[in-house]
Every structure is written in C-alpha cells, then in structure tokens.
Design brief:
The complex is a heterodimer of chains A (145) and B (357).
Chain A: E1 4-8, H1 11-24, E2 30-35, H2 41-51, E3 66-70, E4 76-81, H3 88-93, H4 96-101, E5 105-110, E6 123-132, E7 135-141
Parallel strand pairs in A: 2-5, 2-6, 4-5
Antiparallel strand pairs in A: 1-7, 3-4, 6-7
Helix pairs in contact in A: 1-2
Chain B: E1 2-7, E2 13-19, E3 23-30, H1 33-37, H2 44-66, E4 75-81, H3 85-102, E5 106-110, H4 111-118, E6 136-141, E7 146-151, E8 156-162, H5 168-178, H6 185-193, H7 226-238, H8 247-275, E9 280-284, H9 291-300, E10 306-309, H10 320-331, E11 349-351
Helix pairs in contact in B: 2-3, 4-10, 5-6, 5-7, 6-8, 8-9
Classes of the chains: A alpha/beta (145), B alpha/beta (357).
C-alpha cells in the first residue's frame, strides 16, 4: 500500500489526525512513531491515546520506558519509548517483545529504530516532519495486508 | 526498632538502616550515574543488572557502617512502586528473601511518599504529627516525576497536579543533551547557568496562562515541559545549533532555561498552596537539589505558610527514606505479606501512616 501523506497546520490538527488513526486501528497493531525533537511526537501520542478512549494524562515514557493505559474490555494501550534503550538485546532483557506480541493491545513506540530487529511485521510507521513553524508533514505506512 | 530499607526503583541501588523512623544508622548508595554518563542517559538494562550485582555489597556496607548485624533487623522495607518494573523487581525479590530468612515483617513502600518522608529524616519527624502543619502540599520533582501531592491529616495523599508530558528532570536532561554539556542534566545546567543572565531569554511558562493561551481549569495545577524543550531547540537553531553554543550565549541560555522551570514550579506550588489552603509546603525529589529552586521557594513561601525542604542528601534516591517511612506502617500494624507486588504507575490516592486522625 502506498504510504498516506498529509499535512497538518496546528497542534490540534496533529492531535486530531492521531485521534482518527487510533480510532480505526485494529488491536494487535504496533505503531512506530518517528520524528525529531520538536516534531510533535508528544502531541501525536496524546491524540492517539484519546482516540483509544484514554482520558488520563499521557505523560512521557522516556524515564519509565513504558506507560500502560487500560482500555475498555480488558484491552490496553502501551506507550513505549526506547530513547534510553541501547539496542534490541537490552529491550529483550526487559521483555519489550511481550508488549509487541499482545493481541489485546495497541502499541505506540517512540525511538523504535533502536530496536528494529525485534519489531513485528504488523507495523505501522508514522513519520512526523516539521516543515515550518506549525506545519507538519505526516506520513503513515501501513503493514502489508 | 531497626528497619532495613531497600531502594532500586531507578538508577540507585540503596540500602539503609534506620532506627525508630528517624535516626539514620547508615545509608549506603551505589549510583550508576557515572557509568551511564558516557551514554548520555540511563541505560535501563544496565540498571537492572547493576542492581543485581550491587545489592549484596551495598547491603554489607550498610550493615558495616551501622554497626549492626542482620540479627538486629526488626523489619525489611522496600520500594515497590512506582518505577522501572525490572529494577523494582530486583529490590522486591531480594527484600522478600531477606524477610523470610530473618523471619521479620516486610513492608512495601511507595517511592513518592518515601521522598516526602525523607524531608524529615535526621531532623524532626514530629512535624508530621502536628495538626497545625496540615494540610500539607508536597512538590515531588525528579527525572521521572513532577507532581503536587496534597496530604491531609486524615491520612490521604492525593495527587492534585502532575506533568501532562515530560518531568522537570527529563527537561533538564534533554536540554543538557541539546546543549551538549553532559549528564545528568540538572547539575550541569545549574553549573552552566551560574555565569548566565536568567532574564536574557524568555522561555515559555507552559500552563500558567502567561503565554497568551488561556489556561484550562483542569490544568491549573498540572505541569508541561515538552513545549519548553521544543522552544529551546528553536532557540538553538536560530543561533546555529545547540552544540555550537558557547561562552556567554551558552550561560545565558542555560540560566534562562533553568529560570523557566524554576519559575513554573514556584508559581504552580504557590497557587496550589493557596487554593487548597495548606499550612505547609514540602520540596523533595532529585530536582530539589537545584539551588535556585530552593532559594526561590524560600524567598516566596511566606509565614504563616511553613516550608520544609528535603536535605540534599535525601533528595536523590536513597533507602533511608524507605526504612524511615516503614517504621510508621509497622506501628500502625500495616505490614505486607509475600504476595506484595511491584507497580509501575503511581496510584492517584495513597494512604500515609503519619496522619493524625
């Protein structure tokens, strides 16, 4: 499938795009979220969580590695950040693969490139790129059907 | 009563012996910060493994320094949340084994409440048992957390404000990385800022209603530091890149950035203190080591409001605060059994054992 590509023009635009994506995503999906510092990953993550029905604060998993959010019907959102993970072996030592394999969860993972070796095939890839001040180009690659 | 406390919720492997909740007999900490410095951040796998190899020698040292033997221990206390799950589990499993082999009670301790309690170690814990000091408001601020905790004299500790994105310590860490000045971020930013002008650059004070955006009431006591980090990035880009900043420009940038964090922490704490009508304010957690933050709070928290600032040695993670707090759980008969679990997230309301009613 050709990647979707679109622009957003404000934080709230980006949050809404993430909300829409999350509200349609099947459980068992893993979403790798890429973007430089300041691209809008925090905003995207918040919209994504809201789209799955999370009303709690969506705080940074940088320090904790994982933030777990319970959803309706015993489902989960796992928000991971591999920023402090050195490589995939370190991630395995922490059981990160178990998060990826949970069919009752949606996984949103930042800095996924650090653990590329253990990313599953059902992987969505979201790239956020800052074009100028408030304008972002968002690319979404879907997993092969 | 002598309690042996264990703390492994993040970077530090710590063991401490505390008598009757107040007298610190020994506090031994193996910090892994030095080893991690070369990576520009904490490496969690290393942290978990290091805890495993460090915990025995750290305990031996704590025992030796205290002049006690294992037979003198009346209870074992351990941090069981919130924190890094694999790291917490090392401490918790060790504590369970120790409690079983010694035949003494085991107490799981909330890391947040331990930080609050740590403020009174080596000083006067009786402050916690006086009516006139309640309600209390604690600003717990570190690498992983930034929260305002309201402690009522009924024994309920409630999180009334928290970061909605990054913690203050994380903002310091990421800023130091952006400026390429080292790790951990707090101390290096503070040092760099000493020669700088804190009013030179105007970094945003998010969620204070001062940045032109109206403040949603639900965020009145919440914090946000993600935008500040982005703002620093843009600032650096305008000046040719963060790693290229040097001299006065670097000092002024660090000072102004630090000022923005200190300013928000101070404003939010004072606003919450007034709103909830508290009698005392507590500052604790790793970022409480920051001198400008300590000084600013001292200058602005005025009588009749009382201010208690954690001694620096108990700001960063340690086990004395864990062992100290456990004493009061034991006194209240609230001990755990071996099924006690670790938890990664902070509960919204916790019970404290140092209540009055």
């Amino acid at each position: 499938m050709t990647p979707e590509k679109f622009k957003t023009y404000s934080e709230s635009d980006t949050e809404k795009a993430a909300f829409r994506m999350a509200s349609q995503i099947p459980f068992g999906s893993v979403v790798a979220l890429h973007g430089n510092l300041g691209a809008g990953k925090t905003v995207f993550a918040r919209g994504f969580a809201r789209g799955l029905g999370v009303s709690q604060v969506v705080s940074s998993p940088t320090f904790t590695l994982v933030q777990e959010y319970p959803l309706k019907n015993n489902k989960w959102l796992y928000h991971l950040d591999m920023y402090r993970i050195d490589n995939y072996r370190a991630a395995l030592a922490f059981g990160v693969d178990e998060y990826f394999e949970d069919k009752d969860a949606v996984v949103l993972v930042e800095w996924a490139e650090r653990v590329a070796e253990i990313l599953p095939e059902n992987l969505f890839i979201v790239n956020i790129r800052r074009i100028e001040d408030d304008t972002r180009e968002i690319t979404v690659e879907h997993p092969a059907p | 009563m002598i309690v042996l406390g264990i703390e492994t919720s993040c970077d530090e492997t710590a063991v401490s012996l505390v008598k009757d909740g107040a007298t610190v007999l020994s506090s031994s900490v193996a910090s892994q910060i030095a080893r991690h410095a070369e990576f520009g951040g904490v490496i969690p796998e290393l942290a978990a493994r290091e805890h495993l190899s460090a915990i025995n020698p750290v305990m031996s040292k704590a025992l030796e320094l205290s002049g006690c033997s294992l037979n003198d221990i009346d209870a074992v206390a351990v941090t069981n949340g919130p924190g890094l799950m694999p790291a917490l589990l090392v401490g918790l499993s060790f504590a369970k084994g120790l409690a079983v082999s010694l035949g003494v009670p085991l107490i799981g301790i909330n890391h947040f409440l331990a930080h609050i309690y740590g403020t009174f170690l080596d000083s006067d814990p009786s402050i916690l048992f006086k009516h006139e000091n309640y309600p209390m408001l604690a600003l717990v601020v570190s690498g992983g957390h930034t929260a305002l905790v309201l402690v009522g004299q009924d024994g309920n500790a409630q999180v009334v404000g928290t970061t909605i994105d990054d913690a203050a310590g994380e903002a310091f860490d990421k800023a130091a990385k952006l400026l390429n000045i080292g790790y951990p971020g707090g101390p290096v930013i503070e040092k760099t800022a000493q020669k700088g002008d804190a009013a030179k650059f105007d970094f945003p004070r998010s969620l204070t209603g001062r940045s032109g955006k109206s403040l949603d009431e639900k965020n009145r006591f919440n914090f946000s530091f993600s935008g500040l980090k982005t703002s620093l990035l843009y600032h650096c880009e305008r000046l040719g890149g963060g790693e290229k900043l040097e001299g006065q420009l670097l000092y002024d940038t660090a000072a102004s950035f630090q000022e923005a964090i200190v300013d928000v922490l101070r404003m939010k704490t004072l606003d919450a203190a007034r709103f909830f009508g508290v009698s005392s304010v507590i500052l604790c957690g790793g970022v409480a080591c920051n001198n400008p933050l300590r000084e600013r709070l001292e200058a602005t928290v005025k009588a009749p409001l009382r201010l208690f600032i954690s001694p620096k040695k108990y700001c960063t993670d340690n086990a004395a605060m864990v062992a100290g707090l456990a004493f009061y759980y034991i006194k209240a008969g609230q001990v755990d059994n071996l099924s006690v679990d670790a938890y990664a997230r902070l509960p919204e309301i916790s019970r404290v054992p140092f209540c009055i009613s």
